[in-house]
Amino acid sequence: MLSTLKKRLEELKVSDIMIPAEKVAHVQLGNPLEHALLVLVESGYSSVPVLDLDFKYQGTIAKTPILKNVMGMERYEMEKLSERKVEDVMNKEQPSVTSDTDFLTAIKVVIDNAFVCVVDEQNYFVGILTRRAILKEVNKSIYMNA
Ligand code: AMP
After folding, report:
1. Which UniProt keywords apply (predicted)?
2. CATH topology of domain 2-144
3. Using CA positions, which residue lies closest to atom 9 of ligand 1?
4. CA-based, 20 to 30 A from 136: which of 10, 12, 51, 113?
């Protein structure tokens, strides 16, 4: 049973289960932190992709580092949210995968990340792959093979 499960998962590609770019909330380089926080709070996500003006993937930005960045000695200095930019806080080290990355490789990436960005060969952003989508597919495959 395990080998059938593994074979089915091996055949899947990231493109089969990713959320396409047009449905993904994102922010852009140059946006003030105020805008990024608004997108994060309004979307309800703790982290979203950061793109450049050409729609190329640059990293991710999360709520907690934004709030830490504007924390003063005694209070959150909220006025700094409009002075500082996304690039002052974003995580530039987040890995990405491509649409034809196989599923088993993608699983390894989402062990440490709630989602991973999907890019084409020129680094244009095409979507995200979430832990939820991966777990749903693994769950489906287990019962298909039962
Ligand atoms: P999930 O596995 O569905 O809980 O999603 C994991 C993470 O992926 C979320 O916490 C968000 O950071 C990100 N995410 C999921 N869906 C979207 C979306 N439509 N737009 C932006 N980020 C998303």
Report:
1. CBS domain
2. CBS-domain (3.10.580)
3. 45
4. 51
